[in-house]
Amino acid sequence: MALPEHAAPGHTIRRLWPGDRPAVLDYFLRLDPETRANRFMGAVGEAGVRAYAERAVTAEGLVVGAFVDGVLRGLGELRPSGGPRSGFMLGAEAEAAFAVEREFRRRGIGTALFGRIARAARNRGVGTLHVRCLDRNKPMLRLAAKLGADLHRGARETRGDLRLVQATPFSLWYEGIAEAYDFTLSVIQPAIPEENAA
Ligand SMILES: CC(C)(COP(=O)(O)OP(=O)(O)OC[C@H]1O[C@@H](n2cnc3c(N)ncnc32)[C@H](O)[C@@H]1OP(=O)(O)O)[C@@H](O)C(=O)NCCC(=O)NCCS
């Protein structure tokens, strides 16, 4: 199944680079406590969020952001399942995580981020993409199911498994072009701080 990768007009979805680190930090610090708890599957204090946000873009894996009027409002992350330095190997498994600021939900951003992360995972040889969330997290459960993930319910959390089709020469070529475009965009249109938003 081809996953949608485009949000509404006026929204930009692109890969994030080390130069986006200040915007990523601001974004994580803006998340309300409930969103943070759902994203990290438990309560995380400001210091913990700050430490995580500082490393998010440079840690292993990759991060995709959703911009609305130039401000980062949503984030999708792809991480190898094997922990630090495990990398992505052919047929390997990987983890995805998402969060969209509350006022910007239900306009397709979560779907578009999921689509971009799945495409990036596929082109890095990932065979199965996992997404974990708390059992009561209906929006994430619905989103994962809608995009074709098999849901495995546990005592406290649910894991969604999305099987990815193998990369092709065309999908690899397309990924390379899209990343080069994203990098150029990050240089010519850097993220703007929320206080400067229109
Ligand atoms: C899960 C989340 C990322 C979805 O983001 P979003 O931008 O609102 O998602 P979309 O607008 O693309 O919605 C996609 C689908 O998700 C489901 N969904 C989203 N919000 C929902 C809600 N409040 N209730 C029920 N289903 C919901 C629907 O199936 C929806 O499709 P539809 O609009 O065609 O019905 C967002 O709710 C969020 O950031 N939650 C907090 C963080 C979190 O829980 N992360 C998951 C753990 S990694």
TrEMBL record:
Record field: transmembrane: none
Superkingdom assignment: Bacteria
Gene Ontology molecular function terms on file: acyltransferase activity, transferring groups other than amino-acyl groups
InterPro entries for the chain: Acyl_CoA_acyltransferase, GNAT_dom
Limits of the N-acetyltransferase domain: 11-175
Protein name: N-acetyltransferase domain-containing protein
Gene source species: Methylobacterium hispanicum
